[in-house]
Amino acid sequence: DVKVTQSSRYLVKRTGEKVFLECVQDMDHENMFWYRQDPGLGLRLIYFSYDVKMKEKGDIPEGYSVSREKKERFSLILESASTNQTSMYLCASSRLHSGNTIYFGEGSWLTVV
Amino acid sequence: AQTVTQSQPEMSVQEAETVTLSCTYDTSESDYYLFWYKQPPSRQMILVIRQEAYKQQNATENRFSVNFQKAAKSFSLKISDSQLGDAAMYFCAFYSGGGADGLTFGKGTHLIIQP
User: What is the pLDDT of residues A89-102, one digit of tens each?
Assistant: First the structure.
């Protein structure tokens, strides 16, 4: 089975802190994604990557950056966390063609106080 | 940009009955993919069913089936013999190509199963 693992399920950070959310997939997928999920807004794409060191902005990249140094690992970085970044963050991966199934991690609940 | 609309924020159904979740989308593309994803309270989202637009036959996976109406741009999910484990958020998604930003999710439908 495909496994997408997000290192932290629940985090509480202070405003202004730098936050790292890590994601690892074990199926050699080319694509990796970071989504943000908020009630009533569904899933919104923050960034995606289709290869090592490659990244593309999604719908809401402001306040976030990403890193993909290895194919299996995709990190989301909040350079200076703010309270409006309190949310559920979902990592996902898929084969290169996005018509293929996307596999999701369990999510990371981030609270910024 | 593509849009995906799930008009039912919440649905409730009695256990063992059938429920249909609606999804409509807007596109000018002729070739695309449609998906239904399920997100149970444990939060890991999993694929329920996938439909390729060029296939006229509706996809089926056990108790889950879709009614794909390409001309109407409608992609509803039917769950037969509802079970307590079907309780979840259900997201409809559309992909038409052009990279990951070609993948669009609806806002979701919260399905409640009444015992």
Answer: 999 998 877 567 88
